[in-house]
Structure formats: C-alpha cells, structure tokens
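Hi support team,

I'm opening this ticket because the web form for multi-chain structure prediction keeps timing out on my end. I have pasted the exact lines I submitted so you can reproduce it. The total is 689 residues across two entries, so I didn't expect it to be a heavy job. Is there a limit I'm missing, or should I split the entries? Thanks in advance, R.K.
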Amino acid sequence: MKRPTLLRQILVTQAAIVAACCTLMVVASLVATAVVMRAQQDRSLRHLAAALREGIASERRERTMSLEEAAAEFFDELALPDHRFELLRRDGQPAVAIGGRSDWDPVDLPTEPGTCRTASAAGFWRGGRALRACVAREDADHAVRVIAVDALGDSRTLALIVPLLVALPVAMVFGALAGRVLMRKRLQVLGVMAEAASRLDARSDPRLDVHAEQQELADVEAAFNRLLARLGAALASERRFSQDASHELRTPLTLLRLRLEQLRARMSESSAVRSDLDDILGDVDALQQLVDSLLLLGRADLGEIPREPVNACDLARDAAARQRDLDGPAGPAIEVIAPDEILVEGDEPLLARAVGNLVENARRHAGPQARVRLSVVEDGARVRLVVADDGPGIPDDLRPSVFERFVRGPRQRALTRGAGLGLAVTRAIVSAHGGDVGTRPSDMGGEEAWIALPRMSAMASS
Amino acid sequence: MDGHGLLVIEDHAESRRLLARVLRAEGWSVEEAAGFAEGVAALEAARFLVVILDWMLPDGTGTDLCRLLRRRGDLTPVLMLTARGGVGDRVEGLDAGADDYLAKPFAVAELLARTRALIRRGPRPEQPVAQVGPLAIDFAARTVRLHDRDVVLTAREFDLLALLARSPDRPIARSTILEAVWGEDSPGAAQSLQVLIARLRRKLETKEGSERIETRRGFGYALRSGP
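Hello R.K., no limit was hit. The queue was backed up. Here is the completed structure from your submission:
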C-alpha cells in the first residue's frame, strides 16, 4: 500500500489553511467596504435631503409660493445626475418628483421620515439597479425624499471581488510551491534520521547522532536513543549472563577432563580401568558438545560473526576427513565432489561445526554402512553444500521438523545417545551467516541435507 | 632461544595446579601466577618460552594483560585459554596480540600440541608486516599482498603462510605445521595440508613462475624469500 507522505499532507493542510484565510479576508474586506460605502452614501443622501429642505425654505422666504412650487423650483435648480428629489405627501405619494431615470422602477421606497432604505432591486440580476432612498421631514404633512442608485446595489460592485477571487488560487499555488521547497528541506532531517536508524547495528552503544535542530525531532531522537540504551543494557546483561553461565559450566568440565586424562596416563595400556576412563572421556566430550550446542542455540556464542574468507570446499573436505578418522580405515566410503575453492564469509570453526553435524547426522541416521557423499556447487550468488546418503531417508511427516531442537528419528532414539540438537545447531549457525538449510530425498536413494550460504562477493575476492 | 620454562596465569587454583602438573609431566619447568598483577610481576622478573593465559582474571582480563605485554615490546608467545564461548572473543583475543587460542574444556593433547608449536615458532616477529620476496604479510590485519595485489586467504591458509613466513628459507617440519595450524597430527589433517599447500602455491603464483613454497622431501615446506 502506498502511504501518503508527510510532505504531501503538510502541503494539503497548508493549501486548505491558505484558502480558508483568503476567503475569510475577502469576505471581511467586502463586508467592511460595504459598511463604509453604505454609511457614506446615507450620509450624503441625508445631507442632500437637509440641503433640499433648506433650499425650499429659502425659496419660500424670498418669494411667496406654495410648498410644492418652491420644491419644484429648487429641485430643478439643484438637479443632480442619477438622483431624484421628491416631495412626499402624507400618504407617501410624491407631490413633486424631479430627476432620475426612466428605467428606474422603484418599488417599496421608504416613506417614513428619518429613515434610509434600499428599495427592492427589481431586475437587479438582469443589470437593473437597486435604489437607495432617504426621507427627511419637511412639515407635518410633507417629507423630502432623495433617491439615488444604491452604491452596493450596482452589479458592477461585484467587480471588486474578481481580483480577490483571482488572487486566491494564485496564493494557494504559490504557497504550495514555496511550502514544498521549504518543507522538503525541513523534512530532510527525517530522512536522515531514518537512514541513520537503519544503519544502526548491534555493536557497542548504538545511537542516532543526527542532532536534529527542531524540538519535536530532537525529542523523537532522544526517545529513540533512550530506547536503544535500554535495549543495549538488556542485551548486555543477557550476554553477561550467558558468558558467566558458559564460564561456570566449562571450568568444571575442564577440570574433569584434565583429571581424567591424568588418571588415564597413569594406567597401563592393558588396564581395564583405562578403557573405562576412555568411555568416561567420551561422556565428557558428549557433555561438552551439549553445553556448546545449548549455548550456541541460546545465541550466546553467536554474538558477532567474524567476516573472514572461508573455503566452503575445504569445509566439505575437512568434514569428510574428520568422519573418516572417526570411522577408521575399515569405514564405509565418504565421497567428496567439490571444486578447489568457493569462498564464503564467516567463522570457520562455526561453519565446520555446521557441516560436521550434517555428516555426523547422515552417518548416524543412515546407518554405519551407508555411503555418504558431500558435494559443493555454486548456485548463483550462493554456494550449496549437500550431504547425501543412501540410507532409509527421513519419513515425510518428520521432514519439516528435523531442524527443530530435540527432534530425533525413531531409529536414532533407539540406537544412539545424541540429544537431537545437531541439526538445530547447524540451522542456527547457518542462519547467523545469512544462509538457509533444508533436506529432501537424495538421488542416492536416501536423504540429502543441504546448506546454502551467500558467496563472498566477487568484489572482495578479486 | 630467549626464555626458559612456561608461565601459567590462571586464577582458579585447581585448574592452575592441574595445568602446571600436566605441563611439568612433559618436562617443562612451569611457573604459576594467580592473577593479573602476579602475572605482570612474573613477566617482569623472568623471560618465558610461552605464556599460558586465562581470559578471566579477578584483577583484569587476559586480553588487557596481552595488550600490556605487547605495548611493552614483550613478544613472548601467548596461548589464551577461555571458558567464554563467544565467537567474537576468539577474534578479540587474537587482536589483543595473543598467538593462539584454546577454548575450555580442551584435551590435554591439544594443549601440549599448541604449546609445542608456539615454542618452535618462537617470539612473534617485531614488525607487524613482514616482506618476503614479493609478499607483504600483515600479521595484525591478517592480510597478504603479492606485488600490488591483495591475495584473499582463508584463516587456515593465512596461518600456514604466516608460520612459513616467520622463518623464510628455513624448512618447517610437516608435524610442526599440523600441530600449529590444525592442532592435531591426524591423517585427515595431513591430507588437508597437501590440498592447502597446493592452493596456497596457486594463489601465490607470479609471472616468473618459480615456486614460492618449496617442498623439502620427507621433512616439510619452506617459503622462498628470493625474488
């Protein structure tokens, strides 16, 4: 599954915030503009109304005439484009009306003195205009009304919004681009931290040394380092325990061995006690192997595997030679088919043990007279080491579990004293070297167990 | 040869006593030390053929003692004993300047074989890098260069070459090689030696064509120092 990136999420969030802010600013500035414009227009309409009343009054002072005549006289004199002056009767109908345009179709104009109102903007959306009118009292039966095009009612005022609407997406795009550049730089430290973390190994005192400048990242780094320190302490104490346990077990075994060998040296060749001592030494060997196996399986002895060149073909030849030494000159054939050299990387004694266990297992499982064949072949980037025999093979139901601990075949259980750890040890060693183990029927009629290990890189061996 | 006798540094009294007894039975004179400080004192007072050194001492570690020894320019061969199992420990011991390594519990025969091999080999070379003909052998880094080319050797191949390179042109007995490199003189090991010599020869081949490792029939092998 492809996860969203943090950068993408931050940019989307940022764009949303920019959009919201811009919209808010547009609305706020429109409202503010509207409020100011309306207030201005109403003030000027009221001033006009006051001026009209004053004008009518002065006309009537100079010449005696009726209110209607004076109003008509003065309205005509003052006439302003796009304005209509009216003298209203008590019933709200205009007695005198001067100016204005023919397409004005006012409805619902205010008649109450002292008020200003916008008339219903009939036809507004078709390009018509809303009108604004203010009414001022003239005398008990008359009022003066001034009507003008509403400053806000003109559809052209909408043009004010256009630059803002254009500015909004521009701001969002620009913000996203700038944010991308800047945030990517900021977020790089996360990549650095991830890379540093993946390069960590179990070696002494691992920690991230990124020293992030940002507080949050520094917190994450510190928490990560605390976790590493705790894990390191736990690992160290476990390793110390294993080493102590191994020391405590091996010291008495060493003493036991040394004493037995001393005792044996003092016995004459023919003594019956001497052959008993040989048996006991064999038991000590078995005990020692068991201790080694348990420690290996507990990974106590598998700390850091040294990376030295090891010849897989020699591993096969040496294992065969050791088994031949054990079998004696009359023993059954052990065949080795291997080129001169295929190198792997790792610890030779451990790998020798892994192979030796397979050979020993084949000998033990297939019976003392079975033929055993070791072969080493290159298999792409890996080398495959196969130990095949012509014994009875492994029952199918047992095959998946042969590399488990303490699993022994029925024959083995009856005949030998192996603890059933050999193949488990082999698997532990091989997987610590980055390899695999397995078993399948062999072309010799019995079973074949194989080890596959990564070959030493061509780079290093050239 | 420089020193005489062996020094056993081991804190566990029973083990020390038994070790000393086993070694004395072979005819060597043996001095015993029970810890780091005692060991250092003994090494200052006398010279030894081989030091047999336990890894864990109550007042310091065997590796520290080994490093101290090498820093002082004391090149006495050191055989490290350890009851600690870790694979890394073996490498650490050798890195610290130990010449060989034996994991407890060990068979007496192997202890004696390795001790004999160290005595025959003598003190480790003063120079960390030996130049034998066109070969440059770095004993510390365990790497080999032939002319200007790296030669990739397995641990055993390196041990064999290093043994031969410690005394160029002087033949080393087959049995010495088997004891020093394999820790045993068995038919299996003898066969491996032949294979190993053949491979080492091929890896050290140069255009000039003459054999770097010469066979001394019926005795052993020698590393030629000539060009």
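A quick check on our side: The mean pLDDT of chain A is 81. Let us know if the file doesn't open in your viewer.
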